[in-house]
Design a protein that fits this description.
By secondary structure, this protein is of the alpha+beta class. Helices cover about 40% and strands about 25% of the residues.
Length: about 110
């Protein structure tokens, strides 16, 4: 599989998914995740839990934004800013990967 840590610029077409190098569980509405590469634990709360659950399978940034926009009554610019900031933070900590367009096709067909 052609996965890579997210270090490139995020665009609406960027497809992301949780990294296979982590393990996470939901406890009392919070996600507790362990990155197996750096051995750090992370806590994810609030709307971050919904984002985390949505990226269990490959999602484009545009699709993720649209899903959240339908679910939350929030200013569009604020949502876009906060979503990209959160995804960049996950990427910086090795918690997500980007997928190549061919891999996305394979994932969607399985």
């Amino acid at each position: 599989m052609q996965e890579k840590k997210t270090t490139t610029a995020l665009t609406p077409e960027t497809v992301i998914q949780r990294s296979p190098n982590q393990h996470a569980a939901e406890i009392y509405g919070e996600i507790i995740a362990l990155n197996h590469e750096n051995h750090n634990y992370y806590g994810i709360t609030g709307i971050g839990v919904d984002i985390w659950n949505a990226i269990e399978k490959p999602q484009s940034m545009a699709a993720l934004y649209e899903q959240l926009h339908r679910e939350y009554d929030v200013d569009e610019e604020r949502l876009l800013h906060d979503l990209y900031q959160f995804i960049r933070e996950l990427a910086a900590n090795g918690m997500i990967v980007t997928l190549s367009p061919d891999q996305q096709q394979v994932e969607e067909n399985t």
